[in-house]
Specification:
Tumour Suppressor Smad4, Rossmann fold, single chain, 30% helix, 9 helices, 317 residues, alpha+beta
Length: 317
Amino acid sequence: MEKPGSKPEWCAIFNPNAGNCKGSKDRDRISDVLSRNGIRFTSLTTTGRGQATEFTREILAEGYRKIISIGGDGTLHEVINGVFTQDHCLPKEVTIGLIPVGTGNDWGRMFGIPLVYEGAAGVIKEGKSLLHDIGVIDYFMESEKLRTFFINIAGLGFEAAVIKRTNKQKEKGRSSKAIYFFNLLKSLASYSNTPVEITIDGKTSQAKVFSINIGNGRYCGGGMRQTPDALPDDGLLDITVIKEMGKLEIIKSLSMLYDGTVLSHPKIDGFRSTGLKVTSDTILYIEADGEMLGHTPAEFSIIPSAINIIYGNKLIQ
């Protein structure tokens, strides 16, 4: 923790509710592990949704430029949105480290950040960093146009329907990879393919779609690989469009979402672009980094080399 009379290099933002309150149970242990690794830090603890965004703005105003996100993908999402909605410094002057405590921990999976606290603290201590792209979503909440930033993957359609169910259970203290998979199967019973208009690189097409995923990262939903070839620092978004499928066909193809072969399916198209626009007569709901947003019409774009992140193993080339 902070030593009297000196300002630490890092500020840690704890989410005590992450991982079914694992963040709260393990707070002292995590603090001890960071201190034993020589990481000087002060800390703030969130008490509700959106507070990590507020804390991030506040600590950047105070002069901090290094932040440790201690929680799940949702906590990291909030920290990122704090960085990109403040005017005290350029986002690329900020460095983000991660101690994963959530259920899915999908973003950290891509960078070899261990789930063991000692290993994750060691990654921060080693300090290898890269400039990571950040996705931008302009969307609607009823008649209000809003903007959100995302670091990993955004989804429209079926993915958002599953996240909506899962987040309701998280609010009741129930969260696990098994619950996500159960909600995936349950959502199939009521979900319908939706006609959309998609514009990529100035070319517009119409199709009935099951879902659309847009990724800087490769993993979502506790290990699914919906954008299996995405690169976090190439200045492009990977786009996976799953076209109209029957429920039985979806169930038969589920393994492809986990083994990285999803783009080989004849009804699934992959694109790589700096952005896309999605419109639909029937609104499609949107999630980003596992957090529910609003709905279409929506535009997705990218900020290349936007923020420094600390990584363990750069497995992606």
